[in-house]
Amino acid sequence: EGLNHAVGIHTVSDSLWKLAEPYLNHPIYHKTIYTTVPVVENLPAKEEDVVGCDGEVVFVTVGRLHWTKNYVDLLKAFKRLLDAGLNANLVIIGDGPEKECLIYWVSILGLQNNIIFKGKLNYDDVSEILKHSTGYIQSSIAEGFSNATAEAMALGLPVFATDVGGTGEIIQ
Questions:
Q1: pTM of the full structure
Q2: What band does 48 get if pLDDT is binned at 50, 70 and 90?
Q3: What is the distance between the terminal CA atoms of the chain, rounded to a whole angstrom?
Q4: Is 85 exposed, middle or buried (0-12, 13-18, 19+ CB in 10 A)?
Q5: Using an 8 Å Cβ cutoff, are 17 and 30 in contact?
Q6: Element holding 169 (H helix, E strand)
Q7: pLDDT digits (tens, 9 = 90+) for 59-79
Q8: What are phi and psi of 6, to 5 degrees?
Q9: 80 burial class (0-12, 13-18, 19+ CB within 10 angstroms)?
Q10: Could you say which DSSP state residue 53 is in?
């Protein structure tokens, strides 16, 4: 209803505009303004800067601990990687209503030695962890514009992501 009283609409991704457009009953000005993310100049240059203790791979995911982030399926997939012989850890940054559920799944899957919950962190702390990681994972089943994915890419990390919302636009 409120959209039909607007003079114009700015969105942060084209996919958000596609979600809003069907609700309009008249043509309206629209522009997508992509979120800017600071690019860090000092990217890791050596393998030892991105690989953790004992040569393990370190993946990071950042977000609210909510069912739409699909962390349970991420944990199951991560377990399969470990079972296939990958020496890896997964750092989960964020807090939210699903934390106890995720702790339960970590226990059920036997991932206590490979999953690290960092809680909610400030931007500088998140950036520092990302800079020393091997890759970023975004496992959401619903997403608008993932700033965390854009920030990980700006830091030079490879991103493993589900193709939902504006994620495909970010990666392209």
A1: 0.74
A2: very low
A3: 32
A4: exposed
A5: yes
A6: helix 167-171
A7: 999 999 999 999 999 999 999
A8: -80, 150
A9: exposed
A10: G
Measured between alpha carbons, how far is 88 from 77 in angstroms, rounded to an integer?
Answer: 12
Helices (H), 110-162: 123-131, 147-154
Is-contact 71 106, C-beta < 8 A?
Answer: no
User: Residue 118: which region, alpha, beta or left (left: phi > 0; alpha: psi -120 to 50)?
Assistant: alpha
In sequence order, what are the residues at sequence separation of 6 or more whose Cβ sits closer than 8 angstroms to the Cβ of residue 85? none
User: What does the buried/exposed string (b/e) look like for 116-147 if buried means 16 or more CB atoms within 10 Å of the residue's CB?
Assistant: eeeeeeeeeebbebbbbbbbbbbbbeebbbbe
Token readout for 127 is: 């950036």
Burial level of 88, CB count in 10 A (0-12/13-18/19+)?
middle
Which is nearest to 132 in space by CA: 53, 63, 52?
52
C-alpha distances in angstroms, 60 versus 14, 136, 138, 162? 26, 5, 9, 15
Q: What are the tokens at 50? A: 């991105």
Q: What is the CA radius of gyration of the chain?
A: 18
